[in-house]
Specification:
InterPro entries: Cu-oxidase-like_N, Cu-oxidase_2nd, Cu-oxidase_C, Cu-oxidase_fam, Cu_oxidase_Cu_BS, Cupredoxin. By secondary structure, this protein is mainly beta. Helices cover about 5% and strands about 45% of the residues. The chain binds CU-O-CU linkage (C2O) and copper (II) ion (CU) (2 copies).
Amino acid sequence: SGMDSMPGMGSHAGHDMGAMAQAPVTLAEGEGLRQLPLLANEAGRPGLFQARLTAEAATARFVEGQDTPILAYNGTSPGPLIVAYEGDRVEITFANRIAGEQSTIHWHGMPVPADQDGNPMDPVAAGADRVYAFELPEGSAGSYWYHPHPHGRTAEQVYRGLAGGFVVKAKADPIPAAYGDTVLMFTDLRLAADGSMPDNTMTDLMNGRVGDHVLVNGQKNPKLAMARGAKRRLRLYNATNARFLRLAFANAAMTVIGSDGGLLEAPVVAEEILLSPAERVELVAAFDRSGTATLTTLDYDRGWMGPGRPTDAGLTLLTVDVSDAPAEAMPPLPERLRPIAPLGAPTVSRRLVFTETMAMNATGMEMGFLINGKAFDMGRVDIVARAGDTELWEIVNQADMDHPFHIHGTQFQVVERERDGKVAKPPYLAWKDTVNVARGETVRLRTRQERPGTRMYHCHILEHEQLGMMGIVDVQA
Ligand code: C2O
Ligand code: CU
Ligand code: CU
């Protein structure tokens, strides 16, 4: 739709390319995979998870002898992994020690009350503390995460290091404990020669920031040792600002067992997995052949404005050394994991059209990332909904890029996707809070908000969210 012919586009993008053309800094690879540090539960009694998360400036060593200034939760990036159980009450004191910046903690995908969800309208001032308190309902087991959501600063706070995993465990878990349970959190790093993280460029704002290195738990291509015949439960998190990860596992077999909001009904064998920004997938990887198994990326064209589309073919994210010695026999995956009740017939339907606009004005390029022709306004309610109603949301992507669509406060079910007049049902029923809407595609989903209050919905390319591709649904009791 004429994006390339916009006046001024070339010069801006060209200016960016100067900075981006610097050879990326080389990072060490092949260290042992680090488990994310666990956030310790300080509560003295069962059923309660109590802890403190402090966001503040820290340094990271990506390159020997060079400190990179980052933002971290409790000193680490990714932040500490929170593991709690269905039925638990959670009380987390957030201390914002980021100099001069407001922040929040948003509990991505979790069924928390609206006023505990770290929305942009509930900022925590620099230097202030606040307690987030919520219960984890029965049936809420899943792979969630937490990240800042302050107005206008989310993208930068996340790419500087603020994001962590939140695993809610089921009391009765059908996945054999012998598979272990490992979180692999993908983040995206751009590092300048002096060890700093460069600010976002115009190209980053348009496309979302895509860095030079995809990291796993903060490491580049770390190593994991497995015995032949072993199976490992892996929770993959795309915690990047804007990178689409199309993943394949060479020399290992992948079986998808869960999505954003917990287990599927039954395991599904997968050759490859597309994980758009903010999505998660739970899988069981089986290592049946000795030698090296590698988790790699395939190229995926998610649409790109201006020159310099990164091609991600053949990046190795994780290397698994599979020994010759056989593992102890592992129990098989159950054939049924749990029932998922389909959301019923919707009583309301809505249409959300995603577009991008570009215009030159006196101060330079003006970009708009819009939903139904509007940019986000914190003082405006875009949708009024009723708690408990099942709604059909039709997300229409008329833009030149894919936009991963996310709704706060609930999990939804994708019913179908339409492209060029062809309608396709998803291969299986799943609870999702983020779904990629490819350019030219329409995704229809059923969603139900159980709790009243103000909820955000937005594109999870964080630069787009920040540039306006976000709206507010006011859920009434
Ligand atoms: Cu992951 Cu509105 O957020
Ligand atoms: Cu969210
Ligand atoms: Cu977007």
